[in-house]
Amino acid sequence: MEPRQRHEFRQSWDVCSEVPIIQDEQGEKKKKHCLKWLSYAIVGVLVFTLVLLSKTSFLILISFGNNETEIICSEQKTTVLLGIGFILIGPSVLLLLKSTWKFIFKSSTMPSKKTVFWVLGCEFLVGLGAAVLTIVAMPHFDIVTNVMILNSVSILSAVFQVVANCLAKERKWLMVPLCSIFLIVTGYVLFAINYLAFESSLETKISVGLAIGGTICVSVNWWESYSTLFNVSFLKEISRDIAQSRNMVSIISSLIRILITSAVIAGYVPLSGQEWKSVKLVFETVVIALVAIQIISSALCRWFVVLACKMRAVRCSFIVPMYLASITVSAGFLVPHIVRLPESNQTSTCFENFQPNSSDEWSHLILTDVIRTLNARDIVVHMKTGGLACLGCSALSWWLGLILSTIYIWYLKIHRIERTQDLFVRPMYEGAFMEQSMLLNTRFEIRKIIKERRSAKEIIRVFLCATMWHESYDEMMKMIISMFRLDNYSPIHKNSDVQFEFHIYFDDAFKDVDNGRHANEYAESIVDVIKEVYTIFSEEDRSIFKQKAALPPQKIINTPYGGRLEYTLPKGNLMMIHLKDKTLIRHKKRWSQIMYLYYILGWRLNRQYFKEFEQGEELESIKERQKKERENTYILALDGDTDFQPSAVMLLVDRLKLYPEVGAACGRIHPTGTGPMVWYQKFEYAVGHWLQKTAEHVFGCVLCSPGCFSLFRGAALMDDNVMKRYTTKASEASQYVQYDQGEDRWLCTLLLQQGWRVEYNAASDAYTNAPQEFKEFYNQRRRWGPSTMANTIDLLGSGELTSQRNSSISKPYILYQIISMGASILSPATICLMIAGSFVFVFKMNADLSLVLAIAPPTVYLILCFKLKSDTQITIAAIMSVFYAFLMVGTILSIIGDLVMQQTFMTPSGLFLIGIVAMYIITAALHPQEFSLVIYGLVYFLCIPSGYLLLIIYSIVNMNNVTWGTRESGSKAKATAVNTIKKKFVNSLCCKCPCLESEDQFEEILPTETITQREQEFQLSPHQTWIERLQMKSNDFLLDETELPYDEIDFWRELQKKYLEPLKENKEQQEKIANDLKELRNKVTFVFFFCNALWLVATFFLQAIGSTIAIKIPKVYPNGTRFMSEDFSIDPIALMFLLSFASLLLIQFFAMLYHRIYTLIHFVAYADTEIKSFRKQSHQIPDSNHQPEMNDPDTALCIENPSAVPTNAV
C-alpha cells in the first residue's frame, strides 16, 4: 500500500512548488464595469442633449414662419422658408458628398433601371411629403402640434410590421403594431377635429390635409427595412440591388431630395404672396444660427447614436433619450406659458426694429414668440376644454404610437461593434425628423427569424499556429501558458460558437547522433514545458490530503516530415506539436507557414467536402457549405515567444466575424525585455502603433500585419494569388529581399492586392521579446528595412489596379503612402541637416562648414560598410551612436537656448519641437495604460541618428545579406549562456574543486547507487529512437505511440514533393544569387543615397545663395507683439519639408483620435458581454464537470467567464 499511496497522494513534507507567473486578466472587473457605465452615461447625455438642440432649433424656425410670431417680420418670412429648406437638404448634401467620394475613389456598381425608377418614385414621395409638411403646413400650427405631429410619420412602419408578422404567423407580436396604428389614426382624427372644428381659417384647414398627407408620404421612407420580410421577389431584388450599388443610389436619392425641396420652396413662395427680395440681413444672424445649430447637432446626434449601438448601450443611450425628446421639448415650451413670462417692454420685437443685447434677452424673446403660436389659438384664448382635450390627446396618441411602432428596438440583440449598415437601413438621418428617423431607421426583424438564426448560429474555428525554432525555456513557457489560458477560457463543448485548436511548428527539431536523428534539446524542452503547464492548469487543489490526479496519456506520432505530439488539453481542446526535420522538409518560418496553411486550409478543410462529393451529395450544397466554412475559419499566426490573453484573441475575432471584407487583423504588439535597446523599441513600437498604424487603418488599410500576433481569414488566404503565390521559391535577388526577409509584410501585400482589407485593433494586446543587444537589433532591422521598402514599392507600383480591386485603398491613400515613403527615404539627409543646425548654434560654425562636418561621418561609415564585415560595421555604428547621443543632447539644448535668446517660442524650430512633444504627450495620455512609455521617449530621441541614419546605411549596404540575423544560434533551452560561461571560467581556475567541476566529473565522485538511480531516471540510451527518448523524457506524462492515417501520410508526401522539399545546395546557383544580390544592393544604394545627396546639395546651394530667396517669417513674441524689423529666414525647401512632415503628423494625430473612440467602443462592448457572461456562470451550480451552455445571445463571442487560470495558479 505504501508505494500506491506515494503515487496517489502528495508527499506530506513536499508542500512547496515552483509555479511560473501566470497573469490573470480578470482582476479589473470593477474598473471595466465603471468604465462601461461611465461611457453609457456620457454617450446617453450627449445623445439627449444633441437631439434636444436639433429638435428645438428646427421647431423654433418653424414657429418663426407662423404669421403670429414677430421676431421675423411678415415681409421676411421667405428667409425662414429658405432656412427650413436648408435643414431638409442638409443630410442629403452630406450624403451626396460622402457617396460621391466613395464612387470616385472606391469601387461602385451601377443600379438596374427598375431600381433607379423605384428609388426615384420613393424619394419623390418622401421629399415632397417632407417639404410640404414642414414648409407649407407646419408654420400654420401651434408649437404643441408641431412637436408631436412629427411622431405620426411612423404610420406606414406600423402597417408594414403588421403585414410582416402576419406573413410570419407571429401572432404574439401582432397586437403591438396594431395598437400603434390605432393610436396614430386616433391622433389624426383628433388633430383634424381640433383644427377643423375650432378654427375658421381656410388656409389652416387646407394645411391639416397637407400635413396628414405629408406625414404619410414621409413614412414611405423606411420601406427598405421591411422589404425582405415580404414574399415579393420584386422587392427582394430591389433591396439586393440597392445594397450592391449603395453609393450610386445614395447620389440619386440625394439629388432628388435637393431638387424636390428646392422646387417646393420656389413654388410656394410666390403662391403665398411672398417675395425673394425680402431675403437679406436677417439671414446672416437669427436664421443662419438656427440652421447651423440644427445641422451640426443632428449630424453629431446621429454619430453618437451609432456609437451607442455599437457599444451595446441601445436602451439607455439611444432609445430612452429619443423617446424623451418630444416630451422634454414640449415641456420646455409649455412651462413658460404656464408660468406666464413677463412681456417685453419693446413695442416691436421685429429684428429690423430691435436687436437684443444678451443671450438671456434672446432666449426670453424666442420663447415668448414661440408661445404666441399657441396663445393666438381660439381654444386657448377662450379656454375651450374640448379643443384643449383634442390637442393633448392627439399629441399623446402620436407619441405613444411612435413608441409602440419602435418598441422592437428595446429587445434588439446587437453584436459587439455591429456594422452600421446592419443596424440602420438608410445611410443618413432626416434633418426635420431627428429622433423619428433614427428610431424608424433601425432594422426590423421578425422574432421567429431571430430565434431561427440563433439556433442555426455559425461556428467559428480558430487555429492558433505558432512557429518555433531556438526559443529559450522561458519563451516557450509564455507561449504555452497563453495557449492553456485560452483553453481554460473556451472549453470545447457543443454550444461554443468559437472553437480553438493549437498548433506549434518546431523548426529544426532534430539533431544527428551516432545511430540516426533524435529530437534536440529544444524539442525536449517543449515536452518539459507542456508537462509543467499541464500540471498547473489541471490541478484545482494541491492539498496534500487530496489524491494527485494522474495526467491523461497523450499521443506521439512518427510523420513524413519528422514527428508530432498530440495533446488533449484540460478543457478538451487539441494541441499539436509538429517537430520538423530539416532533412525531410524545408525549414525556416515562411515554409512552416506554408506547411500549416496547406494542412489546415487544404487538407483539413477540403477533405471532408471531397468525401461528401464522392458519396454523391448535392454539389451546390457542398460548395455553399465549403464557402461558408472558409469564411469562418481563422488562423492566428504567432511567434514562439508571444504572450497574450484570451480577450486579445476575441477582439480580433470580432473584426473578422462582423466585417466579411476583412482578410486579416493585427493587435497592439508590446516589446518586452530590459536594457536601453528595449527601451528604444518600446517607444518606437508605441509611436508606430499610436500614429502610423491607426492612420493606415482609418484612411486605408494596414500594410503589415505582424506574424507574431495576427488573425487571418481562411477565405482570404485561399483566394487567388495569395496562398499559392506565397509558396513561390525566391529565384531572383529582389525576391530574396521581398519574400524571405519580410514574409509577414509580403503576405499582407498579396492580400491587399487581391482586394482584402487588413485592420488594426488597438485593444488587442500581445507581448513578444525584443532584441536586447545592439547587434541583434541591427540585424533584425537589416531584414525589415529593405523588405518594407520592397513591398511598399510593389504595392505602390500596382496602385492603380489595387485601388480598383480593393475598396479600402483609394488614390489619396496611395498618395499618402508615397509621401510617407519619400519622408523615409530622405530621413538620413534630414538627420544630417539637423546635426548641422546644432553645430551652427553650439559651436558658432559657418553654415556650410557645419553641413560638411555633419555629412562626413555618415559618408565615411557608408564607405566602411562596403569594406568591413557585418560585425565590425555594427561595432562602429554602436560607437558612433554614443557620440551622436551626446550630440542630440546638444541639439535639444541648442534649440532651447535659441528660444531663450530669441525670447519667443514662435520660431519654426521652436513651434515644431513644442508641437511634437505636445502631440506625443497628448497621444500617450489618450493611451492611459501606456502613458509611462513617454519616459522612454528621451532614449528614443537620443537614438534618432542611430535609428534613422546609421541603421538605414547599414540596412541598405547589407541588403545582399539574406541570413536571418537573429537566433542564428541558441544556448541550451533551460540553462542560460551566462551560467555556462561562469561555470567554465571558475572550472578553469579551480579544476580540482569537486563542487565546481563539470557534470561529468561530478558524477565520478557520486556513490554507485546514486549513479545507477540517475541513469535510470535521466540517462537516455543512444540506441533508443527519438520517440522512445521523448517518452522517457515525458516520464509520468505518458506519450502513446500511434500512426497517421494513410491518406494523411500521402498528403504530407505530396506536399513535400510539390512545395516543401529541402533545398539542395548548388554552389553555382548560390554564387550567382550572391552576385545578383550585390548588384541589386549597389543599384539601390546608389538611388537611395543619390536622392539624399540631391537634397543636401540643394540645401547647400540655398545656403550659399543666402537671403536672396529665403522666406522671411516675422518675429512674434508670446504676448502677441510683432516687430517687422526682426524676422527669421528659412529656405523654401526646408519650409516645404517642415510643412509636409508636420502635415503627416497632424493627419496621423487626427486618425488616432478617431481610432481611439472606436477602440473604446469595442472595449466597452466586450466588457459588457464579459460581465454578463461572468454573472451567468456565477449563478450556475458549481460543478467541476459542468460546461455552461451558451443560449444567451448577450454572450455571443464571449463563450463564458474568461478566467485565465485556476486561482491557485495565479
TrEMBL record:
Coiled coil, from the record: none
Compartments, as annotated in UniProt: Cell membrane
A GO term, aspect molecular function: chitin synthase activity
One of the GO BP terms on file: chitin biosynthetic process
Keywords, in A-Z order: Cell membrane, Coiled coil, Glycoprotein, Glycosyltransferase, Membrane, Transferase, Transmembrane, Transmembrane helix
Plastid keyword on record: no
EC numbers for this chain: 2.4.1.16
Catalytic function, reaction form: [(1->4)-N-acetyl-beta-D-glucosaminyl](n) + UDP-N-acetyl-alpha-D-glucosamine = [(1->4)-N-acetyl-beta-D-glucosaminyl](n+1) + UDP + H(+)
Enzyme type, top EC level: transferase
A single Gene Ontology CC term: plasma membrane
Membrane protein topology class: Multi-pass membrane protein
InterPro entries: Chitin_synth, Nucleotide-diphossugar_trans
TM ranges: 37-60, 80-97, 117-137, 143-167, 174-198, 210-235, 247-269, 281-305, 317-339, 386-411, 813-843, 875-897, 909-926, 933-957, 1086-1111, 1132-1154
Family: Belongs to the chitin synthase family. Class IV subfamily.
Protein name: chitin synthase
Organism: Carassius auratus
